[in-house]
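Recall the central idea of this unit: under ordinary conditions, the amino acid sequence of a chain determines the structure it adopts. In this exercise we apply that idea directly, starting from the sequence alone.
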Amino acid sequence: MIKAETFSGQTVAVFGLGRTGVSAALSLVAGGATVLAWDDNRASRDAAQKQGVPIVNLKKADWSEIDEFVLSPGVPHILPKPHWSAKAATAAGVPIICDIEILAREVAARPERAKPKIIAITGTNGKSTTTSLIGHILKACGKDAQIGGNIGRGVLDLDNMHKGTFYVIELSSYQLERTHSLRANAAVFLNLSADHLDRHGTLENYGLAKQSIFANQTKHDTVVVGVDDNYGKALCTKLKVKNGRNIIPISARRAAGHGVSVLGGKLFSNLSKKSLQVCNMAEAKALEGRHNWQNAAAAFAAVSSLGLDPHEIGDAILSFPGLAHRMETIGTLRNVRFVNDSKATNADAARQALASYRNIFWIAGGVPKEGGIDPLKDLFGNVRAAYLIGEAADDFAASLVRSNTPCQNKRTLEMALLCATKDALESGVKDPIVLLSPACASFDQFKNFEIRGDAFRAQARKLMGIEDMDAARPAKEEDAA
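Accordingly, the structure predicted from this sequence is:
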């Protein structure tokens, strides 16, 4: 645990006692703060109290005596409607922050000789894969790398920092809008597409929240920007005009001057005078698809900027085992391959899998995002049939019918998987794929995308006759931007 010593002597309120809230509360207590922690859910309060978190009803608290307020990233403070706790904090002029801001202050307070390196990653899609890949590369190269943030451990649960430590942090827009002093030695901005607009109001506001990942960087730091979408191109140009930092464009579609690209399936670095072929992405079995090529380019750019050997980085990319719930191959039944892409919680994320496979028996649906699946209609030709679940089923069916794509409303994941598997086995097509890529949030039927993916994996393994030996995975708090 990282002790929040910069908050010593302060009174800090904490709302939301999930993974990050509990770790923040315990970190603050260990650092000498007076903590007032609360959650609307009694079970969450009881569980936190058993771990040593001080429970105080914030509805009855005197907010004039509170110095700062740590609000769970998933709880809104402005849109679509501010939570009662956020209203109370705002009325009393109490700053609203999150656990990332606590970490940022702790790092800033350390002398240079004791500071870790911070690699921060954001974007609408690809964050978790890129974060995990960077962590894997650093560990394969013999570094003390720890992964946290919007993936895995809460950042305040990471091991105590020291010089030589690398903190690899996935950051959602929810976290970034409440983080004000983080300085990233390497900041990665992968892409931006319409998502979570109910929280941010407009695409512009969403993008600005993401861009705050660059705040506080100096001329000694590195910016990595994906330029395969229009937003990224414009952002890269804007940052180059400002100058003052090492700016590395990355692309999976074209050569990037003084950048990193994947061309013809091969990863090239143009960061020195001579172009260097780093590795052949065809050999990276866990990084299928053009979107994963961009993720690999981003990981290479970020890690190489910190002085690691490019050939060692390339070897590590090829040995990456992949990420659960993101184009994760579960196994095969005869010639039918099962792929778990539960983390595709919007259409743009689902696009990656639909573009990477042919002969797809597609399971989609859940809580729909703005725009539905209409943006994917150019890829419906890869879909043999769709099996729809959850709240989005009727709307998705209308989109598919307009494109003459066969579809069925199966309501539940289990029924959709059974029917998709039966049809794939009987289809006679070469190498059919039963793909869970929902293009939706999970909240109508599952607590989060991880539980949804775990259910798909367990059911697929049952069909394949494989006993599911996986231990239960800890639940994430929310599908975050």
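The chain has three domains: 9-97, 100-318, 328-464.
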